[in-house]
């Protein structure tokens, strides 16, 4: 049983690497099998098609990111405390799972409706966005927050978190940084993001 789990983990790790390098269209099952150091027959035993393998990885990525969002925006904390938790949780999650932003971009380009349905299904199981929207409006009416629409708040926050990870190869080259230095910068960036958001949103 342990061997089966290890083999599947090796397959998923290899598939993430190949999908990131070549995209969905360019990825080949043989390349994934070679990367996982198994034969193609063994790969097909676990996943009968490239689509099934991609869906497995996407389900895991969307589920992970959805849970982080629900965890950050739930509870009795203030809006800015929830935003700080979201920045920290999402940054940590992407650092540990750097394939996620590229996978989501690939899926949006390949099958936008499928991705939307998958994400909405996860989030609609909670009333998280309606609750957060109500809380933002309440704090705006109390004079705690600037009257910035929630979509702008969420887009700004997610862009600040995600884009640096998508652009990582370019920034490493431009600034001649090591991977370790870049990851350290991402840790430091949590504070910079929150400072920017507080100055933009808090009255």
UniProtKB/TrEMBL annotation:
Ranges annotated as DNA-binding: 28-47
Domain HTH tetR-type: 5-65
Keywords of the record: DNA-binding
UniProt entry tagged with the keyword RNA-binding: no
Superkingdom assignment: Bacteria
Pfam families associated with the record: TetR_N
Molecular function terms from GO: DNA binding
Entry protein name: TetR family transcriptional regulator
Naturally occurring in which organism (per UniProt): Poritiphilus flavus
């Amino acid at each position: 049983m342990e061997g089966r789990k290890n083999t599947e983990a090796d397959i998923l790790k290899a598939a993430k690497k190949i999908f990131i390098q070549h995209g969905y269209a360019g990825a080949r099952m043989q390349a994934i099998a070679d990367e996982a150091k198994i034969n193609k027959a063994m790969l097909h035993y676990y996943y009968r098609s490239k689509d099934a393998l991609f869906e497995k990885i996407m389900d895991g990525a969307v589920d992970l990111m959805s849970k982080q969002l629900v965890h950050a925006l739930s509870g009795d904390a203030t809006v800015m405390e929830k935003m700080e938790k979201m920045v920290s949780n999402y940054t940590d999650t992407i650092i540990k799972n750097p394939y996620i932003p590229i996978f989501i971009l690939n899926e949006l380009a390949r099958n936008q409706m499928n991705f939307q349905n998958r994400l909405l299904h996860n989030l609609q199981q909670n009333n998280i966005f309606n609750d957060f929207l109500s809380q933002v409006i309440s704090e705006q009416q109390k004079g705690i927050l600037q009257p910035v629409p929630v979509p702008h708040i969420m887009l700004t926050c997610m862009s600040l978190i995600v884009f640096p990870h998508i652009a990582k190869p370019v920034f490493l080259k431009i600034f001649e940084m090591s991977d370790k230095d870049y990851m350290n910068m991402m840790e430091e960036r949590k504070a910079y993001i929150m400072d920017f958001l507080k100055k933009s949103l808090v009255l």
